[in-house]
């Protein structure tokens, strides 16, 4: 686009005097209906972040995404009719459109070359950001950039988004939180902050671009945007999204600096350069001298982000293994398990053991779509910001500079905050809205309507039929399946759970989530007492869970997680039925799981349980020792090894591992059942005459701990009395014996005999 054309475009798109001149005369009939549906459908789809329904599994994600897709499909059908009727509404191809289309194409290609196409296409109930959702976002981008051809239309769209941000903020400020993690209807404060970042900058753009405008609409936007900022900004700043908060302040600075740079006054441009120079010098000084306050803050931040660094390292290793097109979208869980860091169980590493995202947009894109995908993703930002900055100097009326300048800054701060989090439907929606707006600002517009054409009835029937088919297949069926999952999870009857589970499978959507949930439910059932009349129902449920989870293993052949859960299920099924073949299958599947994730302790723990069930105590101890060696600071591993040594009859090593477990965070002293197990080890070890006194002294502490948890344990008081007597603490022995009589008078004769045996 030449210089004259760009100046003409800047005047036409943003206006020289703040007055809008209509360029399109909308035709009556079907064309007007289609435009109405697209316009109001767009306003409606912007309310997606407010959608929530607790009757669905992942209520903050699934209802939102399905709502978004349904509205977009209706808009798309209207747009297809609109293009057929009048060709002037066809997409305008520019550099940004090509970049977005190229990224989508590589996203899809990486899905086919990745390790699990099904997951890449459908995603999961927890995320729902696979190919299907990306296609809907791309459709929305094309439609908006083609249909919204006047500034006032875009101001209204941004205004609607700001209204949504205000409602969300008021809900958080005044309402009762639904999610314990906060975030209002979004359910997570980090995701909420990322979304509000867009609406806050939309309000800033509307405020500054209409500042002191004397028209009625100008005054409205000033009041509306200013009030919205007063409501939304405190919510953003009080969230836990530190990346979004830093991006907000950085964005304000960049916006002010950009205004100085693009000013026609030389003194302001010089001031901008002076500010940049001061910042560079300050950065060098901080790096060289490292003041204690700054150093302390950096150290604290790095400590808190340790788990993120570990996950980032996993992502980098995954990228190096598949550098061109990656592992496929939605498949990072495979990489995370393969390069699992054993310290992930520890509090200092976050205590999170499952990650399906890298939590860094660069590494996330690299590991899932490779270097090709990252370059195409970065191209979107580079082209959008480049085109906006080229447009900015051409704008005549200076307040209008904040439209392209504000969008440039917003894209930068959005990219920055995404270095610490990832996108969900809320941020994807407003991101593609911004891209469509950028496309509008940087492309030539058509001068007027083309010839109106009639729609072939057969073609109309095909369009409507295809829309209904897609509507049912990719929205209604998955939503029904999702609703059955939560019914299955909450059902107390095994037959009901099985029935709901089978209903949840009647969808084309990826079925891993319902299988996993049902498997976990049956895994827990295997450790419960089951009445005789329910055994047949439970056996059928176990068989169903095993058959379905085996399908997940085949479909996710490189994924550690389904093999681990299937192994756990086999062990639980063995406990329930006693069928030897179940434990054999458990060994086989868990051995393969360990091969896929050799540094994950869970594989060794469960395989050790399977070996123990077969009486292979030596292999059990070896596996549990391996788990300890992977991360000696993990108390769970020491505890499991202690229990294995107890079964093996090596009580001294059992006690050693039990106290190592306590030292490394497994606080069995506060758990009655665990405390009872350690007491049993002491009692068994007490047969060694060389250790009687030592054991009695330790046992006293354990008995007192047990009494603190449950002071009415008669047998514990009796055992405490004996231990006091063994150590010669006869007065305390008498006090403990008196407590036994108080709690259980029928034991008085035996206690009196015990008291007579004590020295006077």
Automatic annotation (TrEMBL):
UniProt TPR repeat ranges: 601-634, 714-747
Keywords: Membrane, Repeat, TPR repeat, Transmembrane, Transmembrane helix
Start and end residues of each O-antigen ligase-related domain: 229-378
Entries under InterPro entries matching the protein: O-antigen_ligase-rel_domated, TPR-like_helical_dom_sf, TPR_2, TPR_rpt, WaaL-like
Alphabetized Pfam families for the sequence: TPR_19, TPR_2, Wzy_C
CC annotations in GO: membrane
Membrane topology recorded in Swiss-Prot or TrEMBL: Multi-pass membrane protein
Stated name of the protein: O-antigen ligase-related domain-containing protein
Taxonomic lineage of the native organism: Bacteria, Candidatus Nealsoniibacteriota
């Amino acid at each position: 686009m030449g210089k004259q054309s760009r100046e003409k475009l800047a005047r036409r798109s943003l206006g020289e005097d703040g007055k809008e001149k209509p360029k399109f005369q909308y035709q009556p009939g079907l064309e007007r209906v289609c435009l109405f549906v697209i316009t109001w459908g767009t306003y409606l789809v912007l309310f997606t972040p407010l959608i929530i329904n607790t009757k669905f599994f992942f209520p903050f994600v699934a209802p939102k995404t399905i709502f978004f897709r349904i509205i977009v499909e209706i808009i798309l059908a209207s747009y297809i009719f609109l293009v057929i009727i009048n060709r002037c509404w066809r997409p305008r191809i520019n550099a940004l459109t090509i970049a977005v289309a190229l990224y989508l194409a590589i996203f899809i290609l990486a899905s086919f070359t990745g390790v699990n196409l099904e997951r890449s296409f459908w995603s999961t109930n927890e995320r729902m950001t696979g190919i299907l959702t990306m296609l809907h976002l791309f459709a929305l981008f094309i439609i908006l950039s083609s249909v919204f051809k006047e500034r006032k239309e875009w101001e209204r769209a941004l205004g609607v988004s700001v209204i949504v941000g205000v409602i969300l903020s008021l809900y958080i400020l005044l309402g009762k939180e639904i999610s314990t993690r906060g975030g209002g209807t979004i359910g997570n404060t980090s995701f909420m902050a990322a979304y509000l970042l867009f609406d806050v900058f939309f309000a800033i753009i509307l405020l500054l671009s209409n500042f002191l405008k004397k028209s009625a609409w100008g005054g409205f936007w000033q009041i509306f945007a200013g009030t919205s900022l007063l409501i939304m900004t405190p919510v953003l700043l009080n969230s836990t999204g530190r990346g979004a908060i830093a991006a907000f302040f950085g964005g304000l600075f960049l916006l002010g600096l950009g205004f100085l740079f693009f000013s026609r006054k030389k003194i302001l441009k010089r001031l901008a350069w002076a500010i940049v120079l001061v910042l560079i010098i300050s950065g060098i000084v901080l790096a060289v001298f490292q003041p204690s306050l700054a150093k302390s803050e950096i150290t604290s931040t790095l400590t808190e982000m340790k788990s993120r660094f570990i996950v980032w390292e996993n992502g980098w290793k995954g990228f190096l293994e598949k550098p061109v097109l990656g592992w496929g979208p939605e498949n990072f869980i495979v990489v995370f398990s393969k390069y699992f860091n054993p310290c992930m169980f520890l509090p200092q590493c976050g205590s999170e053991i499952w990650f399906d995202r890298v939590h860094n947009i660069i590494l996330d894109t690299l590991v899932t779509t490779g270097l090709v995908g990252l370059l195409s993703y970065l191209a979107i930002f580079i082209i959008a910001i480049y085109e906006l900055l080229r447009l900015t100097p051409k704008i005549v009326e200076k307040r209008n500079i904040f439209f392209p300048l504000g969008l440039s800054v917003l894209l930068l701060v959005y990219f920055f905050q995404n270095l610490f989090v990832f996108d969900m439907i809320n941020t994807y929606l407003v991101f593609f809205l911004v891209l469509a707006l950028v496309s509008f600002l940087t492309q030539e517009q058509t001068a007027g309507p083309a010839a109106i054409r009639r729609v072939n009835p057969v073609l109309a029937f095909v369009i409507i039929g295809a829309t209904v088919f897609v509507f049912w297949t990719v929205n209604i069926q998955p939503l029904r399946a999702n609703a059955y999952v939560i019914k299955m999870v909450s059902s107390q009857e095994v037959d009901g759970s099985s029935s709901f589970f089978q209903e949840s499978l009647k969808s084309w959507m990826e079925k891993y989530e319902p299988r996993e949930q049902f498997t976990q439910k049956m895994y827990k059932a295997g450790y419960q007492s089951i009445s005789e009349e329910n055994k047949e129902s439970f056996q059928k449920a176990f068989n169903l869970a095993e058959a379905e989870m085996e399908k997940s293993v085949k479909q996710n052949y490189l994924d550690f997680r389904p093999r681990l859960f299937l192994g756990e299920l086999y062990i639980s099924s063995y406990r329930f039925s006693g069928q030897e073949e179940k434990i054999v299958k458990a060994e086989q599947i868990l051995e393969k799981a360990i091969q896929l994730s050799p540094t994950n302790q869970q594989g060794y723990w469960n395989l050790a349980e399977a070996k123990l069930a077969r009486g292979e105590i030596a292999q059990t101890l070896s596996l549990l020792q391996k788990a300890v060696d992977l991360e000696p600071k993990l108390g769970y591993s020491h505890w499991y090894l202690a229990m294995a040594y107890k079964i093996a009859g090596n009580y001294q090593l059992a006690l050693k591992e039990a106290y190592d477990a306590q030292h490394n965070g497994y606080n069995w002293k506060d758990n009655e059942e665990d405390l009872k197990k350690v007491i049993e080890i002491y009692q068994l070890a007490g047969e060694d005459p060389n250790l009687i006194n030592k054991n009695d002294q330790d046992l006293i502490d354990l008995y007192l701990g047990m009494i603190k948890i449950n002071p009415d344990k008669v047998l514990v008081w009796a055992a405490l009395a004996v231990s006091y007597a063994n150590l010669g603490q006869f007065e305390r022995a008498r006090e403990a014996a008196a407590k036994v009589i108080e709690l259980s008078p029928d034991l008085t004769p035996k206690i009196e005999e015990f008291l007579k045996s004590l020295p006077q």
